[in-house]
Amino acid sequence: MGSRRARGDLELKALRQLLQQQTDPVARAEIERFITVRSTNLAASPGAERLIDRFVGVLGAREVLSRKDVGARPVVYCVTNGSNILQIGQGTAKRFKGLFGGLPCPKHTKAFVVAASSVLHGPRLRFFALELDDAPERRRLEGELQFHFGETFIEGFGRQTTLNEVSTYLWDELQRVRCDALSHDLRVAMELVVQDGDVLHTLFRIPRFREPLQRLFDGYYSAVPPRFK
């Protein structure tokens, strides 16, 4: 976390030096915009608490304590773990429900992030949903929340960190704490998951990967019969 902040400070210093050297008004305005955004990201600590205050306290969402409590209507939804925001999204109730533990791994870009966080940050996952039938309004609220809090926020990362960067970081940490559970083939396959979280859904359906993946994620996702060998 400290190194991340230090790197951000160095980036700001370099941008300010570049601004001093720049004479073109358009270029200066663009650099100033980058400095403002970067400074805000470093100073802010959005985290899950502020997201929950906004989503539940202001927008009227509710905490969903069990997958059995997920309704049938489309939702805007959030998944957190401690201070970490794992997902801000919208879609069908089935898509939201798939991220709960104990179910087969869903075809979802955040399937890896959620399962990895349950190992690295502890089993403190919380799920929140706002039922909303109006699709344009769901997309608007999703965009508003992601603008203010980021689509994913892992403590120590800025709001503008990409999903690929977050996935790479979580995978590096998993390799460190789960080195005994990783075969060479699984390591190679997981590199694909880091690039696209949907791939985890496919790996769980390959017999030779199913049990190692369950060990890797402490059984967060259940085993399912393979669709192909």
Attribute tags:
229 residues; alpha+beta; 2 domains; four-stranded antiparallel β-sheet
What can you tell me about this protein's structure?
The protein is α+β, with helices and mostly antiparallel strands. It has helices at 2-21, 25-43, 47-58, 93-97, 111-120, 135-149, 163-177, 184-195, 199-203, 207-216, and strands at 62-64, 75-81, 84-91, 125-131. Strands 1-4-2-3 form a four-stranded antiparallel β-sheet, with helices on both faces. A hairpin with a 2-residue loop joins strand 2 and strand 3 (84-91). Helix 1 (2-21) runs antiparallel to helix 2, helix 5 crosses helix 7 and helix 7 (163-177) packs antiparallel against helix 8 (184-195). The protein is globular, with a radius of gyration of 20 Å. The model has no long low-confidence stretch (mean pLDDT 85).
Quick rundown:
The protein is of the alpha+beta class and 229 residues long. Helix content is 54%, strand content 11%. The longest helix has 20 residues, at 2-21.
Radius of gyration: 20 Å
Give the proportion of residues in helices.
40-55%
Task: Kindly report the average pLDDT value.
Answer: 85
Number of strands: 4
Shape: globular
What is the overall number of helices?
10
* Major pleated sheet: 4 strands, antiparallel
The structure class reads alpha+beta
Overall number of structural domains: 2
The separation of the N and C termini measures 42 Å
Stretches where pLDDT is under 50 for at least 5 consecutive residues are none
